[in-house]
Amino acid sequence: MAASEEALMWVEKYRPKTLDEVVGLKDIVESLKAFMRNPKTMPHLMFAGVPGTGKTTLALAIAHTLYGANWKSFTLELNASDERGIDTVRDRIKDFSRYSRTGFGGDIPFALIILDECDQMTGPAQTALRRIMEVGSRTSRFILICNQSSKIIEPIQSRCAIFRFSRVEKQAMKDHLICIAKNEGYTLVPEAAERIVDFSEGDLRHAINSLQTASAYKEGVIDEKTVALVIGEASPMLVQKMIRKALYGDFMEARKTMYDIMGSFGFSGTEIIRQIQREIFKMSDLTPTQKAELSGVIGEYDFRLTEGANSDIQLSALLAQFAKFGKGIEENYAEAK
Amino acid sequence: MTIVLNSRGFKLPRLEKEKFVNLLHLGLDYDRNAGLFSIKSYNNIEKVIETVGVILGDEVVFQQTCIKCGKSFGCKECSYIEVCTTKFLPFSCVCPKCLRGQSFEESLAKF
Amino acid sequence: MQKQSNLLWVEKYRPKKIEDVTGNDEAKALFLEWLKNKKHTRKAVLLYGPPGVGKTTLVMATAREFNFSVIEMNASDTRSEKAINAVAKPATSYTSLDNFSGAAKTGGNVLFLDEVDGIAGNEDRGGVNAILKIVEESLVPVIMAANDPDIEKLRPLKKVCLLVRFHQVRIPLIIALLQKICVLEHVKAEFEALERIAQNSRGDVRSAINDLQSLSEENHSLTLQDTMMLSSRNKDISMDDTLRGFFSAQSIADTSRLLSYSSVDYDDFLLSVADNLPKRYLDATELAKAFDHVSKADVFRGRIGTENWHLLKYFFNALAEASAVNPASYKPFTFITPPIRIMTLFWTKGKRTMLDAICDKIGAQCHVSHQIAREQYVPYIRLILQKKPKSPLAAWFKFTPEEVDFLVKMGRF
């Protein structure tokens, strides 16, 4: 068995440990380095941006820079979507500050609290968080991580230095993937890299996970076929099956497939709808006009999904729309078959 | 056996100070001259009934006052007792007789 | 007789005099005693109890009888700061606020905060503090009303408030009141019908009067049969019955009524409707239309969240539309129950717990939330372990053999 100290998930293994190791994100890194020169000047920070763009990485790098190898003793990592309520968050922060304060030496200016997915918190919870931040600001600094800063209440925003993270550039991501593969003893074919990059839509974490999975299929070379296999098994083929069933008018079966996908993969509604959108355009049995029309419908339900309470209801409603749509083009399908 | 009490005044056996204070705390009033307890606050009325029940060692119910005929009556004959959330509490109500006694024409004449 | 048919009976018959407020005599007495006491031992009073039992009505009737003005602030609508300012600047806002003298016939003002549980109920404690501040800074007596039976949340108010508890109004009292309204509205009502309305109301006078009006206003008569629609307010009615009523509804109005009376859990009901919709509408076009309405209902459910219950009517309306896409095509069918998601997802509690444990371990090693672990790690780790069962990854994540087995078998149909 391998020693368990070294990270075996590539995402972790290749996560930069210090600010210097971070590739890209130049402006943000420079500002953070300035804070690090005199940590006492560091305000609360807010990192906003889509998933897999380095927010957590930078937060952890700050922890490393501030506290060195001992970083875990002075850093509290919390995930708002995992904690049961603001009270739990409050309690954990309270406990932590009490405990960490005893460990403060002269050179430890404050404890670090990294709170991920803050935008999942309700308004009242955020108000409470604001208070927690106020009370704790003498002994601790917060790094708040979120996808959309607009979902964070104004008073919290105004207490933080906000950094916005944009999607990782395609080329940079491609280079990075090839580099990781090489380091692990694999040759990543450029087309395969391209495929992963397209698939992961700017989310580096997702991309690296796909890459590592592909590496488990075959030694030596990671080619497009292997990547396609990984991506295919990850669910898109099932999504196509679901779409076809709906278009052929078998709503019940289509819905069953939908539940299969959600159930077996643990995918969220948003993920599935994104896959539907992607798969529609891959389907050769639909005309461009039909695709465009369906895409409009998908867009509508994608939007409703973000506001609705039950993603499977929205997905079912979308499938019902497909069935209605399919009814109109039934003959075409009969021919195509 | 069930003990029926009148909310405007009822007697209790001699109590330890602690229990007495607790009763007053729960919202009872005590008239020293008459030696009668009465209910002042109804905020903890369920608790009052429970405590008095323990003191008297029996189930305690209060009489109701009918808003129509003014008479006192018990909950026992009421047909809504199963769904009533305030059964046996000393509130006013309408007694079964008054409730069903009036015909439509009778009540019409009244208003 | 003056025609006032467009008036809500609850408004029309809202008592003008204190003695006409039905029920809760003891609360009324306590409140009046507080009001009459010139040196208020406590500056504020909190009337609390279930909805529709006369709290607001009592305040309004008292104001009328004692001739004082009520400055009303809906606590849940008003930003507390604004409200405080309004009270703190009496000279500009209201004249002669300070001449309030309890029962004096000369009038005066009281501040009335309705639905204080709305702001005090927030997880944020600030709400209660805001109320305390209002009470503290107010120059006039403060009357508050709260629905929340959970008085614990409002406990801090106890120090500054007299608490007056309201109870559900008793069924015989409600029946008597309904009888009175029937006489005045010339409704010939069966006793059993009124009884049923009263029983269904759960001590809520307002809803009882509303029910009476909606059921009898048109025909000026009311039979027990007419009240059958109400049965769904009764908790014991099954989901099946509500679904049957829903799917066989002949009009949107039918469904709206059914839904507003129903006490089935909204979320369960929404899901059950979605589950059964394809069995109701066999035509693809109708199904798509109905699902579109259900989808909109779900959006409203999302917007309602845990706070915006005033949007509930839109939720109902959207659902109601789904029931009435084509009333003519209704044929009885057997409902899919339990909810389909439970049937197909094969997620037993044990498996869920196991997946949770797996996600915990992934989260600890990779600094991600459960959700991201589930969406972006589990599907891949599963594939890696399927391809390489002996991969050291399992040990690195500290997965147990059972967890590895679970992952390897996962997602295979």
Structure write-up:
The complex is a heterotrimer of chains A (337), B (111) and C (413). Chain A has 3 domains: 10-165, Rossmann fold; 170-220; 236-330, Up-down Bundle (Zinc Finger, Delta Prime, domain 3). In chain A, 60% of the residues lie in helices and 10% in strands. Chain A contains 17 helices and 7 strands. Chain A has helices at residues 10-13, 26-37, 55-67, 71-74, 86-102, 123-136, 154-158, 170-183, 190-200, 204-215, 224-233, 236-247, 251-265, 269-282, 288-307, 311-328, 330-336, and strands spanning 44-49, 75-79, 111-116, 140-146, 160-165, 187-188, 221-222. Chain A starts with 9 loop residues before the first helix and ends with a helix. Chain B folds into 2 domains: 1-62; 64-111, no CATH class. Chain B has 4 helices and 7 strands, in the order βαββαββββαα. Chain B is elongated. In chain C, the strands form 2 sheets. A 5-stranded parallel sheet of chain C has the order 2-3-4-1-5. Chain C is of the alpha/beta class and 413 residues long. Chain C is built from 20 helices and 7 strands. Chain C has 4 domains: 12-165, P-loop containing nucleotide triphosphate hydrolases (Rossmann fold, 3-Layer(aba) Sandwich); 169-230, Helicase, Ruva Protein, domain 3 (Orthogonal Bundle), CATH 1.10.8; 235-341, Zinc Finger, Delta Prime, domain 3 (Up-down Bundle); 349-409, no CATH class. Mean pLDDT of chain C is 78; it is low at 76-80, 88-106 and 231-236. Chains A and C meet through helix 6, helix 10, helix 13, helix 15 and helix 16 of A and helix 13, helix 14, helix 16, helix 17 and helix 18 of C.
> What letter string, H or E per element, gives the SSE order of chain B?
EHEEHEEEEHH
Strand order of the largest sheet of chain B: 6-5-7
Structural class of chain B: alpha/beta
**Span between N and C termini of chain A?**
52 Å
Whole-number count of domains of chain A: 3
- Note the total helix count of chain A: 17
Tell me the β content of chain B: 15-25%
Kindly identify the CATH topology of the largest domain in chain A: Rossmann fold
Largest sheet of chain A: 5 strands, parallel
| Rg over alpha carbons of chain A | 23 Å
Helix content of chain A: 55-70%
CA radius of gyration of chain B: 16 Å
Number of strands of chain B: 7
Oligomeric nature of the chains: heterotrimer
Q: What does the largest sheet of chain B look like? A: 3 strands, mixed
Structural class of chain A: alpha/beta
